[in-house]
What we know:
The structure is a single chain. The strands form four sheets. The protein has a four-stranded mixed beta sheet. Helix 1 (22-37) runs antiparallel to helix 4 (114-134) and helix 2 runs antiparallel to helix 5. The protein contains nine helices and twelve strands. The chain is of the alpha+beta class.
Amino acid sequence: MTPSSADDPADPIDPPARALEPAERYAAVRAATRALAEPLELEDYGLQSMPDASPVKWHLAHTTWFFETFVLERWRPGHEPFHPRFGYLFNSYYESVGRMHPRPQRGLLTRPTVAEVWRYREHVDAAMQALLDSGTLPPEALEVIEVGLQHEQQHQELVLTDLKHGFWCNPLWPAYREPVDRFAPSSSSATALAWLEHPGGLRSVGFDGAGFAFDNERPRHRVYLEPFALASRLVTCGEFLEFMADDGYRRPELWLSAGFDVVRHEGWRAPLYWLDASEPNDYGGDGRDGWRLFTLAGARALDPNEPVCHLSYYEADAFARWRDCRLPTEAEWEQACADRPISGNFVETGALHPLPLSHGRHARATEEPGPHQAFGDAWEWTASGYAPYPGFRPLAGSLGEYNGKFMCNQLVLRGGSCATPASHVRTTYRNFFPPQARWQFSGLRLARDLSS
């Protein structure tokens, strides 16, 4: 689950073929989180660059608090909390569990120290492994543990996206890791976009299979789709540059009203992490034409053939209008991608950035029918509001607060990103963010209507 150092760039990363035993899986997920923290300096752990982001130290402690609160305190007789105040510091939003420290102030917590947080993880890990090794846990406990592991995988992605935003705010533009030559921009041209037609009709969406799924992916239900076409690949940076060159950010007819308000208020004129190198500045511009891009490996020249990312829903929607297209609904996306293998540029690839479809890692996938880049690279905005499916039932107890309470004023994204663990993704997976959010690896795929 950690970024790979393999030398074969043509082999896509797939989820593990063998299902791990619970104790093995627990150890693997927790080790993957530790590996993500290895490149950091001590000062990096407490960084919080905005209220929507959290310090790495908090992510490490919060994911540990989850297992202590929802597993050990219930199924390990006599368990005592590691620290009596950690429940207040590291609860996120579970109101039924107790009060919590304000989210925007997580970066003010110089204590507990990083060393104490690591001791906290070790303490809980030892107790969890003893519990898992006992072989006495009921099925309900194993289900809650799996929720906790999936939850930690979500936070693994947040560790990277939150760090990236924090490093971006530093005028030194520090790199999370050094650039990897095999992921450097290339001179190969973008793969041509094709349209994949779908007849529509009465279809079923949602999860009903074996294995894990969040409650918001259920129940499977029927939807009626009009005939539609979906683009064969993600929109590229080069295509988005054309939108920008056509005054896309200054044309109100392309934008939702709320989106254009954000554009004017925030002064947006390019995706997040883009820098206009034609303007000399303190962040790397040298007065020459072109755009530079800030990545987890530092700043570099923009590759026009790679998928555009770090877009808000508003930007994705405006681009689609400019192309006389639209964003797909999540039901259309799920139907079009239902038969695709869950393989792509995930965190294990080691790129930590979207790759062009022409890159060697995608070469094998392009030999198959599209849509390509359905999984990994960049989360894909859909036109669907995040709402409950017909017949939705949240998880029992406090875990019912996990998804259902956020089903308002958010949009659904599908497919995973270059920072998502491969074993965390499903075709039915529903990610969700507010429409102005763009610090995640979020991009877009075009759709359009077909005459019936």
